[in-house]
Amino acid sequence: MGLTGIQIFKLLPKTNCGECGVPTCLAFAMNLASGKAELESCPYVSEEAKEKLAAESAPPIRPVTIGTGDYAVKVGGETVLFRHEKTFVNQPGLAALVSTDEDAASVDGKIERFKAAQFERVGLNLRAEMFAVKDASGDAGKFSALAKKMADTGASLILISDNAEAMKAAATELKDKKPLIYAASAANADAFGALAVESGCPLAVKGDGSLESVIGLTEKLSGMGVKDIVIDTGTRDLKKAFEEQIFIRRAALKDRFRPLGFPTIIMANEMADDLMNESLVAATFIAKYGGLIVMSDFQPHSLFPLFLDRLNIYTDPQRPMTAEQGIYEINNPDENSPVLITCNFSLTYFIVSSEIEASRVPAYLLVQDTEGLSVMTAWAAGKFSGESVGTFFNKCGIKDKIKHKSLVIPGYAAGISGELEEEVPGYNVVVGPREASQIAKFLKSWKPE
Predict the structure, then answer these.
(1) Residue 136 and residue 139: Cα distance in Å, rounded?
(2) What is the pLDDT of residue 1?
(3) Please, what is the end-to-end C-alpha distance for the chain in angstroms?
(4) pTM above 0.70, yes or no
(5) Which CATH homologous superfamily contains domain 5-57?
(6) Is the peptide bond preceding residue 183 cis, with omega within 30 degrees of 0?
(7) Which segments within 185-259 are labelled E, that is strand?
(8) For residue 175, is pLDDT > 90?
(9) What distance in Å separates the CA atoms of residue 244 and residue 249, rounded to the nearest whole number?
(10) Which CATH number fits domain 326-445: 3.40.50.11600, 3.30.428.10, 1.50.10.20, 3.40.50.970?
(11) Looking at the DSSP assignment, which residues form a beta bridge with residue 289?
(12) Shortest CA distance to 35 belongs to which of 256, 319, 268?
């Protein structure tokens, strides 16, 4: 980007209205300078400033949102080549293909698996988000009916057809759902581009296996007024597609080459001959820059590893995963149930809460905000001290829920017990187990004081 955050700030209205999503115009200017925001988010910027800032403030890879509601998928908007440089932001959407030549039982089975394949992990619901609906016959009525059926699941949609009339019928009917229109090629770019502008839906482009063909399409469609574009190079060879993904990302981020500054779509279902190999293809492009990934089916044994792959890569490495501070009631505790306290590092919280739940002993678990640090690290950093634990205990409201006078602290934090007793006068501070595996045994022998 040519302009710095301060230079951009000088061109903004300086109202600090917060309507852009950040509290001050300076913060918004810094986001513009780093490619994290769009100028359109500011409702009060002048036309003169728009002209000066439009090109400079656009993110190097345009963010594109497909779908609406809980299953909406936002892709693009990335600012780094490597996750360790900062973080990857918008995780790729996973789609299963359904076609108008499939029988109803096959389609219904995919819908059932889509709904069932949801996994709870570290407080997150891991799931797929999309269906890719393919027009296999050019029958507009059949295509629209299938697309409508898949939209009723709540999933976001990719509409696949070479037939402009069939695509127009389906996209027009479902335009409020913001499906991705797939795909504009050299043969139909005019018709599909006009449909994307008219419907307000994002549009995929499909090259002939060369980046030159993609560049020609994105430049043409951008000139027609299409803003939300997703790139498919047309390549189905794994090695070449892998190389293209890297080239596209580098061109967008390093060279600021606008014709390639869009998220990509990977047709894994066309790059492998069975679901297992499709899963390997999908995992490859989750790691290397795929924005949307289409597979032939949803099966739990293939999806779960992909969910974990996606979660690990798209978790900010500079920010620990945390649980929310507060009181957690486990196994329906009452006024005589034990009270334990721990940190808000997600792994610690889920291990401790799982052990309490497995013990079947009703208990209260207090989770204190330690900025995502584990008990030992937080204790060493002074964030899990007698003073901080005592302040949290006194203010969290647990005293209104219990009659006894005992508080259990982690064994690794035994050193804070004396200071903590001074912070919570009248309460007995009990040092609990050092290892979570001993919690069940400890709770079964615990007695209120």
Answers:
(1) 8
(2) 45
(3) 64
(4) yes
(5) Electron transport complex subunit B, putative Fe-S cluster (1.10.15.40)
(6) yes
(7) 203-206, 229-232
(8) yes
(9) 9
(10) 3.40.50.11600
(11) none
(12) 256
